[in-house]
Amino acid sequence: MDLDRGEVIGVLKARLGNGRDGGLAISVVQLLMDASSSMYVWQRLLRELQKVLSQLGAFRDVAVQYLHDGPDGTPAVSRHFYPGVAPLRSADQLTDPTGRLVTVLVSDCAGPLWRSGAAHRLAYLLLRHAPVAVLQPLPQRLWARTRLPASFGALVRGQGPTSSAPLHFLPDAGAAGYGPGREEQRRAGAAPVPVLLPAPPALGAWARLLTGTGAGPVEAAVGWVRADQAAAAPARPCGPLSPTQLVSRFRATASPGAGQLAVYLAAAPLFLPVMQLVQRTMLPDSGPAELSEVLLGGLLRRREREPGGDGRWYEFAEGVHDELLASLGRDEALLVLKHYSEYVEQRFGKGGPNFPALAIAQLSVGGQAPGAAPAAPDDAAGAGPARPAQPFAEVAARILERFMPDTPAQCVSLAREEAPRSLAVRRAALLIERFEADGLVQSLVDAVQLLRRAAAQQRALAQGVDPELWSDLAQDLLRLWRLRGGADLLREAQDAAQTTASYSGSVRACTVLARVLHAAAGDRGAAGDPRAALDLLRRADREFTAVCATVGLAPGEALAVTLDRVRVLEEQWRLGGDNGLLEESVGMLEAFADAWPASLPQPSGLSLARGRALLRLGRRGPRPRARPHLRPAGRDLAGPRARRARSRGRDGRGARPGRARRGGRAAGRRGGAGAGRRAGGRGAGAGPGPAAARGGPGP
To answer: Is the pTM of this model over 0.70?
Structure first.
């Protein structure tokens, strides 16, 4: 709801004058905005009101403050909507015994301070010293749902100075009031506070009360506040409502715009800035009132505030999301995804997978959406899903699951009588090549669906286990989880990996199982279960150890598995604090570097991994023991190119003394304890398979 600034200024000037003919020229208007989460949508209204009152010239100053629910549940004020940005002060500072302060409390009267009664008690305290009004931005038909229901009638100012004269309420016998009558409230010791709509007639009537001009009563709505206001009684238990009942009850009282907005929001993350963006783009003729109806209509609940969060996240009540999605069309879902995909890109940039944009591409007829970042291929370096912000990806994934058919878009089918298992594997491999080339996630989804059906057919016909099929399924499920997240995908990947590993025990099966276990460990750690995460990491370590001990691995494959195992050891160290795991990592990397073929350039990732491990070991170890690790760590982190440059500078030639020194160290090491014992002596696989690294196929 936007104020018509010119009309409001004209009405208020007619009532208040220009400040030369009354005592209001020395008054201060205090705009006090309730900083509950649902009031986030009304900040523009506050700015408009501040401009209107400042341009009147009838007040010495127009101050803006924000009312917060303090840490101890009492009201507190600050200069910012978010409590962590500006210091909080006691709300007792809002009173002014001189009576020159006029307070306008801007609130929908639905936040925690109103539910606890603290806002009522504060308003009563302020009324004792100076005029107070509540500016209620919600439509009148919604006031009955708030914690300050209104009575309708007229207000008359009593005898005494204008700033401190009491207000007397005269109920309108013909009006349907939402609150109790005057006599009931008077006997309870309550005081009336004007409740205003942000509209010229209501503001003009309020101005007439301020000045005391005219002898007659002023039409008004009032709420009742008490000095001992109790907290709202809990709702009477009447049994939980079903999702259908919740949505039906909301639609029975909501405006048409609010009802449609709730449907659109089912396809968006319930983050207030994103909700406003969806409303502006999908319903440009609506305003904050419709969004407030959705926020207060019983369909949503605030998420528990995370440390450092600002309370702007909401979630649907159980089952409501699916109920609203039933009314959402595919084209509408595509538009909503498009708009908040742009928000994700602006907020997180194009450095990571923009899953909403990828979802648009899959729901569209054509290819990848403009501006969408390509999906990242399977990366063994990360155990967790590469998502800019998990809730955005989760919503996009749910929209895909609802609107994307189960059959692949490319019409790749697996008929029971026509397709042997090897055909499904080959077709899935082609889809994965397409996914890695263009980043279109639908190709990855199709490959997973194809392999799922082949695996289900295999089980149904009791045809045994095809290790290649189940390994591909586990690997592709892991890829999809890294983009979409979801416990079900990860659990399915783990089942497929364990199936193929238990059947074949091949290098690839063990490697896939180890990577899935590593990812599952990261997921359990993020969920706050370090014990389960440590157990999964140890299982992944055993699988990687077995693979590292295999003779005949190609150098590139041996390097990838070695670096995977180093990451697993480092994560075990983070959870358990065992420095021996870091020492094992260093020894394994040194042994691998010594055994790397002299004809091949040594990978930079190997030196970086060793440098990081040495640096961690140097920081964590006791001081005398830590120093020897720090200089090698610095050399390794500097990179091979920098080390070669320093070596050429020292001997004045293009020779590579670093290679000779490393060879000398390796020879000395082999003449001593041996590479396996140098790596920490923790059983098979402590070294990276030097025989394999030297090249040549295995037997």
So the answer is: no
